[in-house]
Amino acid sequence: MNYVKRALVLTALIAFAGCSGGGSGGTAAEDQVYLIKFPHVTAPGTPKGQAAARFKTLAEERFPGRVEVEVYPSSQLMNDDDSLEALAFGEIQMIAVSLSKFDRLTHAFQVFDLPFLFPNLDAVEAFQYGPAGQELLDELTDRGFKGLAFWHNGMKQFSAPRPLLSPEDAAGLKFRIMESDVLQAQVQAIGGNPQKMALGEVYQALQTGAIDAQENTWSNIYSSKFYEVQPYIMQTNHGYIGYLVAVNPQFWAGLPDDLRSGLEEVMAEVTEWGNDQAEAINIQARERVDAEGRNEVLDLGPEQLALWQEAMRPVWEQFANDIGADRIAAASGASSN
Question: Are 254 and 25 in contact (CB under 8 A)?
């Protein structure tokens, strides 16, 4: 299904979900087992993969015989686009989808895609746990996605068939990006050709030359083996990849009150644990890529990064009205603290 058609289908499903109303909660039988299907697209060893597995373990330990969590990593059940539709339609109960994927539903999450807005994960957390970030959890509840938490993957790096030491080096390259208008503008700002593509398709596309380059976290670069088909990796930390953990609002409202509040406590614990692990997982992934010895990893210095920042800064201005100047200011302020 192409992007335009998928967006139309998703919009229709969300409209249906929003008009259907939710349950009142607290009325179900004590012996009922609640199944939570939780698909995602990354490998089990990634930050999201580990957090999803931990949520399953803790939820089933705390509520034996009442909750069953089925986690499907590595796109085993469906990809991100399909999971958005399935959640809105009630076919699955939980997702942890890249914030960029919500681009078609709200401009608010575009703040997370702005290049060089967040220097590190500490800055991301400062924004997400602040008032402006917490408001975003409820941004899409009336459209079929009740946000429970933000999970980190990490900071993004570029990989390419040639060294990218300055923005001019990217000219003419075909870059895989997530389905984000901000990321599209980011690649265009450095003279590249953006190609929106699902994560599971990237390795083969790089291998065959359908695309030339990509941006990703170290954990995804290692777990998806992009290092096998990209001779150069540039340490830039130019962007952030994170996820909105969301549930079907009707399903969540229909849970018994004690179970719903208990699972929210589990989610809070898992989020803190998983986000604490994310940076360490990415550091370890880089070490493993280094150990493979297949790539030249280039650490760009402050002067080189300043050139990239200058080239990409117009993207902020381009999307300021859509995202909201106040929201960008809150994120930028969190980054400077």
Answer: yes
